[in-house]
TrEMBL record:
<feature type="binding site">
    <location>
        <position position="355"/>
    </location>
    <ligand>
        <name>Mn(2+) 2</name>
    </ligand>
</feature>
<keyword id="KW-0378">Hydrolase</keyword>
<dbReference type="GO" id="GO:0070006">
    <property type="term" value="F:metalloaminopeptidase activity"/>
</dbReference>
<dbReference type="InterPro" id="IPR008283">
    <property type="entry name" value="Peptidase_M17_N"/>
</dbReference>
<protein>
    <recommendedName>
        <fullName>Probable cytosol aminopeptidase</fullName>
        <ecNumber>3.4.11.1</ecNumber>
        <ecNumber>3.4.11.10</ecNumber>
    </recommendedName>
</protein>
<dbReference type="InterPro" id="IPR011356">
    <property type="entry name" value="Leucine_aapep/pepB"/>
</dbReference>
<feature type="binding site">
    <location>
        <position position="276"/>
    </location>
    <ligand>
        <name>Mn(2+) 1</name>
    </ligand>
</feature>
<keyword id="KW-0963">Cytoplasm</keyword>
<feature type="binding site">
    <location>
        <position position="271"/>
    </location>
    <ligand>
        <name>Mn(2+) 2</name>
    </ligand>
</feature>
<feature type="binding site">
    <location>
        <position position="276"/>
    </location>
    <ligand>
        <name>Mn(2+) 2</name>
    </ligand>
</feature>
<dbReference type="InterPro" id="IPR043472">
    <property type="entry name" value="Macro_dom-like"/>
</dbReference>
<dbReference type="GO" id="GO:0005737">
    <property type="term" value="C:cytoplasm"/>
</dbReference>
<dbReference type="Pfam" id="PF02789">
    <property type="entry name" value="Peptidase_M17_N"/>
</dbReference>
<dbReference type="InterPro" id="IPR000819">
    <property type="entry name" value="Peptidase_M17_C"/>
</dbReference>
<dbReference type="Pfam" id="PF00883">
    <property type="entry name" value="Peptidase_M17"/>
</dbReference>
<feature type="binding site">
    <location>
        <position position="294"/>
    </location>
    <ligand>
        <name>Mn(2+) 2</name>
    </ligand>
</feature>
<comment type="similarity">
    <text>Belongs to the peptidase M17 family.</text>
</comment>
């Protein structure tokens, strides 16, 4: 979808058929040009708002078809609420809501951006946020719907693909929107990875797909099984041994802080289980198709490196994703097996469906051993227990460093991807003590499954500032929201991009 920004003028849109949307503040408050449009239509806007009890509250919409006095096919009113309620997130929400309202109505539309006096953002900044929200909502994954495409050829349906925002400071808005558009590209790339079925995205193909990041300045290195065995990644390889699709580890490097005194990178680590049957500890059939998105953490890491490189962030960053397929077979890992991780620590595998932590263990160790990072953040659809605790509204946050946890939480709130920090301590750590090895991969059955998983990972980070984000409840949206259509959410890309921008860019 394309966006353009132009000076606010009714003359440019009223003399021809088309769609015009206008912002309306609380109490049906129209801006100067909105009032002029109301006059040109003989008060049609005012009457329609009164009849429909439209007040201009946040995200409220009202559509007028073919209003008298103008050539427009329709006018859409979008509520922005009270001046003090207007924020970047509220405007993004209104952008997404506007897209959902305009899509299928026509292929092109204009939006007149006028905010009430006292709003914290000016018109140009508001236009950028609205455009960003609309872009995020415009995502579709329908490449395999051939019947729809055949019907579309016979009877083309309109789909919004261009929105012009009419606003004071249009040139400023256009410049500011550029980096946002690149972040949206990165989010869409991550959503595509998660949306693909497991017969298309598997360890080798996902690794190959990451090579596309070279076009934005990311160095891509793919570690194949022979190299992984040489490195001693027995925990990760144990998960993969039941599948015909062999494991890969992908290392993504972006160096944007060439002049900085501290060259240590930020390290982002992602769980990439491209399909998770549970292995020998096999899952039930109901809902197993969802396990194609058990690689959501790896997609977030790929999207984050894409975003940082595309917008030329002044930071050094490395992304490491462990890619495996967890399958039952004659060669699969068994409950009771003991594997040796890259760290040298041994792990008794009690449950083969607690495989993501085994993958992350080796990737975390590799990250600190090879890159000596400033900090490490891992993301994983790690536990169903986090959904029991937090539902689908927050991701779980665990950390060994308070400042890191606070900064991640702050970044999450600013982009609408909230985190909730859960506790960690030695009492939980004792849950994974094993009589046969250095540790076991699940607790003794006393609950706190998400915390126990985090305690397991903590054994592979040493003293490096580290955070673990469990995204099992937020990686896939069960229904549409303002800026996330039903499906893959790419949760974490915006969060980590904001975290870097606010706390770590040179």
């Amino acid at each position: 979808m394309k966006f353009s920004f132009a000076k606010p003028s009714l003359a440019s849109v009223l003399g021809k058929p088309g769609i015009l949307a206008i912002t309306v503040a609380n109490d049906r408050s129209l801006g100067a040009l909105g009032q002029e449009l109301d006059q040109k239509t003989g008060g049609a806007l005012t009457r329609a708002m009164a009849a429909a009890r439209f007040s201009g509250k946040k995200d409220e919409t009202l559509t007028l078809l073919a209003p008298a006095g103008v050539e427009l096919e329709r006018v859409v009113l979008i509520g922005v609420g009270k001046a003090e309620e207007i924020t970047d997130l509220s405007l993004q929400s209104q952008g997404g809501t506007l897209f959902a309202t305009l899509d299928k109505a026509g292929d092109e539309a204009s939006l007149l951006v006028e905010l009430p006096e006292g709003a914290a953002l000016d018109g140009a900044a508001a236009a950028v946020e609205i455009a960003f929200g609309a872009r995020l909502r415009s995502y579709k994954f329908d490449k395999y719907k051939t019947n729809d495409k055949k019907a579309e050829k016979k009877e083309p349906k309109p789909a919004l693909d261009r929105l012009t925002l009419l606003v004071e400071g249009a040139d400023e808005a256009k410049k500011a929107y550029g980096p946002r558009d690149k972040v949206a590209d990165a989010i869409f790339f991550a959503r595509d990875l998660v949306s693909e079925p497991a017969n298309v995205i598997y360890p080798e193909s996902l690794a190959d797909k990451t090579k596309e990041l070279e076009s934005v300045g990311v160095e891509v290195e793919i570690l194949e099984p022979k190299k992984l065995r040489k490195l001693g990644m027995g925990a990760l390889l144990g998960v993969a041994q039941g599948s015909a699709n062999e494991a890969r580890v992908v290392v993504l490097r972006y160096n944007g802080n060439g002049d900085g005194e501290d060259q240590r990178p930020l390290a982002f680590i992602g769980k990439g289980v491209t399909f998770d049957t549970g292995g020998i500890s096999i899952k039930g059939a109901a809902g197993m198709e969802d396990m194609k998105w058990d690689m959501g953490g790896s997609a977030t890491v790929v999207g984050t490196l894409y975003a940082l490189a595309a917008r030329k962030a002044k930071v050094n960053a490395v992304g490491i994703i462990g890619l495996v397929e967890n399958m039952p077979s004659g060669t699969a890992q068994r409950p009771g097996d003991i594997v040796t991780s890259m760290s040298g620590q041994t792990i008794e595998v009690i449950n083969t469906d607690a495989e993501g932590r085994l993958v992350l263990a080796d990737c975390l160790w590799y990250a600190q051993d090879v890159f000596k990072p400033k900090l490490m953040i891992d993301l994983a659809t790690l536990t169903g227990a986090i959904i029991v605790a937090l539902g689908h509204e927050h991701a779980g946050l665990f950390a060994n460093n308070d400042e890191l946890a606070q900064n991640l939480t702050a970044a999450g709130l600013k982009v609408g991807q909230p985190l909730w920090r859960l506790p960690m301590n030695d009492a939980y750590d004792k849950e994974i003590e094993s009589p046969a090895a250095d540790m076991k991969n699940v607790g003794s059955g006393g609950g706190a499954g998400s915390i126990v998983g985090a305690q397991f990972l903590k054994r592979f980070v040493n003293d490096v500032p580290w955070a673990h984000i469990d995204i099992a409840g937020v990686a896939w949206a069960k229904k549409d929201s303002a800026t996330v259509p039903k499906g893959a959410s790419a949760f974490g890309v915006r969060l980590l991009d904001r975290f870097v921008a606010e706390f770590h860019e040179a």
